[in-house]
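hiii so um. not sure if this is the right channel but i have a protein structure encoded as tokens and i wanna go backwards to a sequence. like what aa goes where. can anyone help
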């Protein structure tokens, strides 16, 4: 599942749904949480569910950020979205494996009688407790397909500046390692200053260097940046091809380790090369 870019669109703005679907984003994330006032949440969830049923996203990954597990809206969000062609439920403010399991229990009840209704879960890490237990969250259930950073919710209550480079790197490394323990992807947080594309680019590069798979976008102007930064680079694709070709040759000769471009190659490096090749294939299909 290729998600280099994930475009947020408020669930209360149905006039924007078709524009988001027509964008170059790999995924569209309809927001029923922070972007929707309490008195409009019911209407927003109905609008999102209706759109996803007809006409839908035409090949894009369909994500909905529902309201948090402990809110009065969570169960209703899940129930109304059942059978709506949803790929991923994005759950905010997840703080433990128990939260994941409780959410899955509600989701599973809503999916009863829905063909192929097993949606996957993108868990938001946006609190100190969630960060501390990120690996537990990532490993809680096979439905968890990724961890999503939320810097504003994590940093601002603690008085940490949103652009503090040391804090950003610490959290990104911790969440990427947690996701790695479960063998799933990590996705970078949205960058809020839409008038500063260069800083958005620098954030995306920093996340990409730490193994992140993609970035949230709050404006269409950020999509091209995310798609460019998180696509496999030409040198990575070339090296992966060499590694995989050498791996096939080594397997035929019964050799366990071999050298490519002066570097000793072993199982983790072969797995990484396969991941790059798969990502390139998915990128080519999107384009």
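sure thing!! here u go:
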């Amino acid at each position: 599942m290729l998600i280099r870019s994930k475009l947020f669109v408020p669930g209360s703005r149905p006039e924007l749904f078709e524009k988001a679907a027509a964008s170059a984003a790999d995924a569209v994330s309809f927001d029923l949480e922070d972007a929707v006032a309490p008195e409009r949440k019911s209407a927003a969830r109905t609008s999102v569910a209706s759109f996803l049923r007809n006409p839908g996203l035409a090949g894009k990954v369909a994500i909905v950020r529902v309201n948090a597990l402990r809110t009065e809206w969570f169960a209703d969000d899940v129930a109304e979205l059942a059978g709506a062609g949803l790929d991923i439920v994005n759950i905010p403010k997840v703080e433990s494996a128990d939260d994941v399991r409780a959410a899955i229990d509600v989701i599973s009840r809503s999916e009863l009688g829905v063909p192929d209704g097993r949606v996957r879960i993108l868990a938001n890490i946006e609190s100190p407790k969630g960060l501390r237990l990120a690996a537990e969250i990532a490993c809680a259930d096979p439905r968890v397909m990724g961890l999503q950073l939320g810097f504003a919710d994590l940093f601002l209550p603690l008085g940490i500046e949103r652009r503090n480079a040391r804090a950003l790197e610490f959290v990104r490394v911790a969440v990427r390692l947690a996701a790695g323990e479960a063998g799933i992807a990590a996705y970078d947080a949205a960058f809020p200053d839409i008038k500063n594309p260069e800083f958005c680019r620098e954030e995306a590069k920093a996340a990409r260097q730490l193994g992140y798979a993609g970035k949230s976008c709050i404006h269409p102007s950020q999509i091209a940046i995310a798609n460019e930064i998180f696509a496999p680079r030409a040198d990575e694709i070339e090296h992966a091809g060499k590694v995989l070709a050498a791996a096939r040759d080594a397997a035929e000769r019964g050799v366990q380790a071999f050298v490519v471009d002066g570097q000793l190659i072993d199982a983790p490096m072969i797995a990484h090369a396969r991941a790059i090749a798969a990502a390139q294939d998915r990128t080519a299909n999107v384009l």
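oh and The beta strands are 5-10, 27-31, 61-65, 88-91, 120-125, 144-149, 185-188, 214-217, 258-260, 263-265.
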